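Discussion board: Methods & Data

I've been asked by a reviewer to show the raw model output for two of the constructs in my manuscript, not just the figures. I'm not sure how much to include, so I'm pasting the format here to get opinions. Each protein appears as its amino acid sequence followed by a line of discrete structure tokens. Is this the kind of thing reviewers expect to see in a supplement, or should I convert it first? Here is construct A:
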Amino acid sequence: MFPRINQIAIICFCCFYSSTVSAQSDNSWWKSIFRTDCDTIQIQSVNINNVDSILEDTSEFEIEPDSSALLNTLLALPVKDGFGSVVIHMDSALTEIDVKACSETHTLKGYRVQIHFGDLETARAVKAQCRNKLVGRSVYLESIAPNYSVVVGDFRNRWEAESALPKLKKLYPSALIIPTDIELPKL
């Protein structure tokens, strides 16, 4: 009985081993499913006028005492002023994903302060007046059919909205906090 089991084990080993060897060969079927050639080329211009100021600031780098011999053997790269170009080879699928991501407006759950609710003409006048009074704040005109709302700010949390509310209540007594989707802050 044992010789029969040994024979079966040897046959199974030979079959499985040969299949793993063929999977590792250069003409395997799975290698053809991955494209290696890029079908999109993107060229960008790069301004390298400020290279001198970047190269002069070497305060971050410390040179080890025993690496000075290595520094003497390295050749200094020539500094070039002007414009250069960078060629980026990428697949068209990546380009489509990038264009789609840049074209979408991303929102975040947050709060705004509503300062007016009424008809379109009055809402436009309040928005223009508010932009002059509150420089540096975002002012939006939102449609809530059949009326319009003028809201101020992109507050990430209720605490920020609560701290801005007293100042806005002095100018607009009917101001109140509204939970809504806000725009992401600019980086």
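Construct B, same format:
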Amino acid sequence: MPPATEGKQADKDAKLLPLPRQLAVPPGAPARSNVPSVRYDLTVSGTGELGPDDGVPGDGPREIFERGGASWYGIPFHQRKTASGERFDMTALTAAHKTLPFNTRVCVRSLVNGSEVLVRITDRGPYAQGRIIDLSRAAAERIGLIGLGIKQVALTIIDREGMRCGGSGVEAADAQAPAAAPAPRKANVPPRRRR
């Protein structure tokens, strides 16, 4: 027989063997994946829970205020008034939270990639289930949230000097809430004349 037909004959004689019923990985072998286990309780408050150290000396673990989903908002809301009375600027590092007081400084840490951003609370929301904070577009870009839409985060309130966020120290001016902006003045418009 020519060599080409010998190979075809050998293929016909070979039978498929059934798959073994035991595990594909022998006992005692290292795991094939290093993916950490998933936490499904991220939307519950973690008050009192200590967060991971970001590797910067003198920082230490921080108290996590809350964990859950973060989303972002941008162009449709740009320059509209927020609940605090300011105009929303999608290029500023601001955020919306349901209960935190306005002008509270919050360090938002991504639980996906570990990046952090310091934001100031200026609005109320989000009102979707499972979401705890809405970030401005600029803040969302800092933690890599733009492409995903929703990302799991941990929030830490920055309330004293010396705390760190994003690898840099927070200055005294950033740690304290700034004074409330003065109330906007009403424009004095003369009454309309009749013809």
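Answer (T.O., handling editor elsewhere):
This is acceptable in a supplement if you add a one-line summary per construct. For B, something like: The two ends are 112 Å apart (CA to CA).
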